[in-house]
Specification:
The protein has 367 residues and is α/β, with parallel strands linked by helices. 47% of the residues lie in helices and 15% in strands. The strands form two sheets. Strands 3-2-1-4-5-6-7 form a seven-stranded parallel beta sheet, with helices on both faces. It has a six-stranded parallel beta sheet with strand order 10-9-8-11-12-13, sandwiched between helices. The structure holds the ligand CC(=O)N[C@@H]1[C@@H](OP(=O)(O)OP(=O)(O)OC[C@H]2O[C@@H](n3ccc(=O)[nH]c3=O)[C@H](O)[C@@H]2O)O[C@H](CO)[C@@H](O)[C@@H]1O.
């Protein structure tokens, strides 16, 4: 069996790396980068010892979403004609995932969708991810749902329930795979490599499209207020390379002593920061899930999340994008060490670390 695994961005690389590892012994796997964020995707794959087999041309300039999707679809179409895979595997909700799914669908190649069924039900938030994942659900042959709720979302939309597999989220497998074999001193060495300051850490990340513009300025004001309120804490912010986001952070947070702006972390470095931090403040999807492995709290800077499981389990607080709410939700955790300590006993709602094995087993015997 030949499986074409399409990877456009860092989170897809992270969440598909364990699927590639699970498929590789038994299938001919072609790992292809789609050109969306090749540098970040290749970097994340390297953390798992994976080198892409096929690097499609990087998307240059600042294309519109339609141009981005159209050009990736056209190039992926040619790649699929050349490779003739039996399956195309896509993950999540990026334009890459949608472009690869669409290209495969038009060539009548079945699509397996990993992390299927996440929904806010609001096409404007997250944008364009909610639309991308809903469209993928219409054309996929296998739907690998990360949670029971995601599986139920798909069935309620009319997806054939025999094509929905509750696999768990592969991010849990990714964390375990990236940690495997690393020794205590390897992790300690990362403090120096990352120039991570001593003292308690807060890991901050923010890059969603709907959080740009005035909202990002508001978020920066919340970060400044938190830095002043918690002078002993170090707020570490690896910046997404998106220029609109980077520049704002660099201007708005310049000169704040306990805010540390950093270039994007590698995956292993991010896991180290997760291990060391007291709290994560983010609009990221993956970080909302990874905190559950580390039993750390996360304050989510979004109005809605497609991951209510984290809130129900007690890891996540939804702060919206209002600075007062952000400051108060973060304070609710940082001022209450016992509340944080209680997370140690909470089960991970995102899976048991065997999602990739389930996905590989299903694909390898299916038509
Ligand atoms: C709407 C939504 O939620 N969509 C998500 C979106 O991804 P996201 O929001 O999770 O994206 P990011 O925040 O960019 O990445 C996060 C990953 O990167 C790691 N990381 C972070 C900073 C750094 O400096 N170095 C790193 O290594 C970090 O630990 C984590 O694993 O697309 C995915 C793909 O389809 C979907 O799965 C997913 O639903």
């Amino acid at each position: 069996m030949k499986v074409f695994v399409a990877i456009g961005t860092r989170p897809e690389a992270i969440k598909l790396a364990p699927v590639v590892a699970a498929l590789r012994p038994k299938a001919d796997v072609v790992v292809a980068t789609t050109g969306q964020h090749p540098r970040l995707a290749v970097g994340a794959l390297a953390d798992f010892g994976i080198v892409p087999d096929l690097a499609l041309p990087p998307i240059e300039g600042r294309p519109s979403l339609a141009q981005l999707t159209a050009s990736m679809t056209a190039v992926l179409d040619l790649a699929l004609v050349g490779q003739k895979p039996d399956w195309v595997v896509v993950q999540g909700d990026t334009n890459s995932a949608f472009a690869a799914g669409l290209a495969a669908y038009y060539r009548s190649i079945p699509v397996a969708h990993v992390e299927a069924g996440l929904r806010t039900g609001n096409l404007a938030m997250p944008f364009p991810e909610e639309g991308n994942r809903q469209m993928l659900a219409r054309i996929a042959r296998w739907h690998f749902a990360p949670t029971v709720r995601a599986a139920a979302n798909l069935v309620s939309e009319g997806v054939d329930r025999t094509r929905v597999v509750m696999s768990g989220n592969t991010v849990v497998d990714a964390v375990a795979l990236a940690r495997a074999g690393r020794r205590e001193e390897d992790w300690k060495a990362l403090d120096a490599a990352l120039a991570l300051p001593d003292g308690p850490l807060v890991l901050v990340s923010c890059h969603r499209r709907e959080n740009r513009g005035q909202t990002l300025l508001d978020i920066c004001s919340a970060i400044r207020r938190l830095a002043a309120r918690y002078p002993l804490h170090r707020l570490v912010l690896p910046m997404h390379p998106e220029p609109d986001v980077r520049t704002v952070f660099q201007v708005e947070l310049a000169g704040v002593d306990n805010v540390f702006l950093r270039e994007p972390f590698g995956y292993v470095e991010t896991l180290h920061a997760l291990d060391r931090c007291d709290l994560v403040l983010t609009d990221s999807g993956g970080l909302q899930e990874e905190v559950a492995t580390y039993r750390k709290p996360v304050v989510v800077m979004r109005d809605q999340t497609e991951r209510p499981e984290g809130i129900e389990a007690g890891f996540a607080s939804l702060a919206g994008r209002d600075p007062d709410r952000i400051v108060s939700e973060v304070s609710g955790w940082l001022d209450d060490p016992q509340r944080r300590a209680r997370l140690a006993g909470v089960a991970n709602p995102y899976g048991d670390g065997s999602a990739s094995r389930r996905i590989a087993e299903t694909l390898l015997v299916s038509d």
